[in-house]
Design goal:
Blueprint lengths: L13 E5 L4 H11 L3 E6 L19 E5 L7 H10 L3 E4 L5 H5 L3 H7 L4 E6 L14 H7 L19 H26 L4 E5 H8 L1 H8 L19 E5 L5 E5 L3 H11 L14 H12 L4 H8 L6 E3 L10 H6 L2 E4 L2 E4 L23 H7 L11
Parallel strand pairs: 1-2, 1-4, 2-3, 4-5, 5-6
Antiparallel strand pairs: 7-8, 8-9, 10-11
Helix pairs in contact: 1-6, 2-4, 5-6, 5-7, 6-7
Length: 376
């Protein structure tokens, strides 16, 4: 049997991405990393909040064409692509794609099998659906933001990882792949409504179960996993660095106490009244040595302690380096594709797509000659 080409399990799947910012491009990057042929439809002038296209890693493994959807022939060119695609992803506010003539019904009139993925913060319906928003607002109303941080300080903004990418992009990709499976089995496409508020709320399913069971208090810094527990949190070291502790199970907790060098706290693990005392002891010990020294102390142990690294430090961590968790491509250090596949390995095949650079190739490969009109 011939070896499967080393381009990922989605090799042969065609995806149209209507350019946007944030979770849409990241979702399309993940599909591209998995081997899909992703064609990004960039608008003239590019999207807002854009960085130099040469460094926009979320556009790796893609190809780009430029289409002006406000031009008379713009929608027709997108529909030509949709007619030949398996998936289309857009991140406009509800109703915008329809007004532009590239909404779900327009596209599926040309291609009934098409999976039409919609990425928004608030969703396609509901009182806030037409309103603007960003990650921090979406995670705020779901209760997720309110779980993060110290109880006597405002909740910190967790970059845009929790809402945009975890609650948004990943749920869009799961939805698109599920709908693609259905389309291939039945010949019927459908619309996937991926709202960041829905995905982020879904991420908190376990916490809601604990809340209902009385095992979670509905305020910050009072629970096992939110920093309230002294053996699950972060501590400053002598040099201003930090160590992360997650010694939850009894055997890991005992190893943690032994290596940290504090005595008399075996019974403190489940004695909430003594958690303050334990936290003071742990804090004092960590402040007695540098982050590097503590890293050496806990190396090779099951104490569940790790150094808190910066973005630039992370690729050099021995475990991540051994696994190739990060890779270098075109001079940019970046996370390698994930997850990993035994039969259809993935890779960073190309650097960030430059807007419009692949128009001629896409026109040929997808048999859409009108894409090159005006470029001759």
């Amino acid at each position: 049997m011939a070896k499967t080409p080393a381009q990922g399990p989605l090799t042969g799947v065609r995806v149209v991405e209507l350019a946007g910012i944030g979770p849409g491009p990241f979702a399309a990057m993940l599909l591209a990393d998995l081997g899909a042929d992703v064609v990004r439809v960039d608008r003239p002038g590019g999207p807002g909040l854009a960085i130099d296209p040469a460094f926009d890693v979320t556009n790796r493994n893609k190809r780009s064409v430029i289409i002006d959807l406000k031009a008379a022939d713009g929608p027709a060119r997108v529909l030509d692509l949709a007619a030949r695609a398996d998936v289309l992803i857009e991140g406009y506010r509800p109703g915008v794609a329809e007004r532009l003539g590239v909404g779900p019904e327009d596209c599926r009139a040309r291609n009934p099998r098409l999976v039409y993925g919609r990425m928004t913060g608030w969703g396609q319906d509901g009182p806030l659906a037409p309103r603007a928003g960003h990650d921090i607002g979406y995670i705020a109303v779901t209760g997720a933001l309110g779980m993060i941080g110290a109880p006597d300080r405002p909740p910190p903004a967790p970059a845009n990882l929790l809402g945009d990418y975890a609650g948004g992009s990943l749920y869009l990709v799961v939805g698109v792949l599920a709908a693609l499976h259905h389309a291939r089995a039945t010949g019927i496409g459908q619309t996937v409504d991926a709202a960041i508020v829905d995905g982020t709320a879904h991420l908190s399913a376990m916490i809601h179960g604990m809340l209902a069971a009385g095992g979670w208090q509905d305020h910050r810094g009072a629970n096992l996993l939110d920093g309230g527990c002294p053996y699950y949190g972060t501590y400053e070291t002598a040099d201003g660095g930090y160590m992360a502790v997650g010694a939850l199970e009894p055997q890991f907790y005992e190893e943690f106490l032994t290596l940290l060098g504090i005595e008399g706290h075996t019974g403190t693990r489940r004695d909430f009244a003594r958690w303050g005392e334990l936290r003071e002891a742990v804090t004092a010990r960590f402040r007695s040595r540098t982050r590097e020294e503590w890293t050496a102390v806990f190396e090779g142990s099951d104490a569940c302690v790790a150094p808190v690294l910066t973005l630039r430090e992370a690729p050099g961590h021995p475990h991540l380096a051994a696994r190739g968790t990060f890779t270098d491509h075109d001079g940019i250090t970046q996370p390698a594709p994930a997850p990993r596949f035994s039969a259809t390995p993935t890779a960073v095949r190309t650097g960030p797509a430059r807007p419009g650079a692949d128009t001629a190739d896409v026109a040929r490969d997808w048999d859409v000659p009108d894409l090159t009109k005006g470029l001759e």
